Amino acid sequence: MLIQVSDLKFAQPARRNLLAPVLLAFLILGIVLALLLRFTPRRTPDLTILRTTIYPTHTVFKSDSIVVANQHTDDTLYIITTLRIDDRLHLPLFLKDFTATLITGEGEEITTSAVEKLDLDNVYTSFPALKPLASEPLLRDTMIGPGQSAEGMILLHFPVTKEVWDHRRKAVLNVDLYHQGEQEVLISRASEAVSNATHNPTTSPVSSPTH
After folding, report:
1. Which domains, from first to last, does the chain contain?
2. pLDDT tens-digit readout, 136-164
């Protein structure tokens, strides 16, 4: 006797419509991007030069030696600039270094590093009239919290005369941040003033060579 066996049929799961999950994923991605743009609208902090004081120095080097000239002079320039940094990134900022670049009227580019905190007293000892013009320095390795700001003095020293500075093409302060890289801000002529401090030329002895 033959027994007819019907074909076995397995229930197939209904095919899922993938369009809805894809649309939902794009919607979530759009919301995340919008929030990022809303709460982190800037990629760089705000740097502002509040004021700049120019302090020219004139140093006379004297020697008793008959081999070298009796004296020679050295004219340089200290730039006392006050910088304000506003952190609008909603991320902390860590200050790494401060340098400045001067482009003279002849196109020469001179870069200098800001005077270190440990060297400030030596500078004030050499040029006492400079100290009253100084303020609390903005230090390397300072951390600025999100939504906060920091302000302080940056002391720069350029081996040029005031005349060279006055006829410059450009001068910028470079602020190097640990995670955001180097940012620059213009040291504008509008921010600066010349020190009216009275100071006499500094005389430094030069030792005679030994023969």
Report:
1. 46-206 (2.60.40)
2. 999 999 999 999 999 999 999 999 999 99
